[in-house]
Write the structure tokens for this entry.
Amino acid sequence: MRKLAVFLVFVAFLALPTAVFAADEPAPLPVLTPIQEVLEWSEDDWGRWPRDIRFGLEDPEGNIIVPPIFRQVETVWVNGREMFFGPYIVVQFCFDSENWGDRRWGVVNRYGEYVVWPVFTQMNPIAGTDLLRVQYDGAWGIIDRRGNIILPIIYRQIGEFTDGTAPIQYEREWGIVDISGNIIIPFEYQAATGFVNGFAAVRHDNGWGFIDRDNNIVVSPIYDAVSPFNGYGLARVRLDGKYGFVDYLNRVHIPLIYDALDEDFLYGLARAGMRTDEDSWARSYGFINIGGHVVVPLEFSWHEAEILRSLMRIPAANLPDLVEKPHWWDDNLRSTLPQRVDLQIFDIFSGITYNVRSFSNGNHADVEPATAADTEALFRAAGGASWNGRPVWVTVGDRTFAAAIHSMPHAQDTIPDNNMDGHICLHFYGSTQHVDNRAVHAYTILAAYEAFGLLSRVLR
């Protein structure tokens, strides 16, 4: 009965005039932040945990704009905070809290009014557009956030959009659709991707190759797997377990001899790996250039190669002559680390650099990003707010130290205009937590220290 009700709502949705859903744009409002309400709790041997949580949105003054009745509300993370932007909000409504299959997706405006009724089993925003991939009764199509149908909801699958195109399946065959809902490549392939850098991967006669936008074959479909063409005009391919690169003229550019290979080149270098023994899955890694020449010998572990890949982002002129690991207490770093001045942070795994300022050297250094741009860089490096420590190099004057930093704002705030409410912790070798005086992030700090040794080994 409940499914019938949802179906009738969907039929009514399709039958209503477009104007019903094309309401005027709401007046601009401040950025909204999510709120939640726990409707039901559960308990077990491990403790008490929320079983039924509903979400809504409030404005900066605490006024509820969208009531907390939804299973999910589409938001984004900005500078460590979850926020909502734009006039239309994708929400998940629950017809029956006991039945996960009855959760449906719809759209409300910033006044909490329905713009698209919650009738869809899946709803995925298409990045950079006002469009949504939607699923109803097993079929996929595209609508905009006002409910206008861009592509009929009759297709078996619609993939992710790249360069304004996406793979689309009708019955058993695949083609490609553009952002306006036009089928630009007919349904004649076993599988496909959207276009990237002018070419799309397609599977034909059980092999993968590439086509151009006129549906001409540019790389023969003979490979077991392919990756998109990169900015150097090369695509990684795999055949019989070996990787190499081809170009768009259907030529093998780098021979298929590697057991592992990056799909793109960072500063002209790609990480390559080969088995150390044909009877083993263990691999040694190094780097090749665009011409296929080995420039860093294949003698490193995957983890070491990952660190080296990050260090490539540092201009040669900025590489430190030495990275130190002084003890926070025994070597008196606690007293000598300057406060209220900019400390340069280099995040080893992301290659991102930003500045922080220390306002207290206690059990460890309490710091904040120096500017709003530094806060943005911190969260970009860490992937948002997190208590997980990250290996970093800290440069103060002519000295560079191995350290670990997390990205979770908390407690005291000393810089009002850096878009961070609170501070973060910077740990050095031997520094401890405030709460229990326990040394933390030791392995992370060691990784930062050993990264320099690894770099020195390669440079030698």
In short: The longest helix spans residues 442-459.
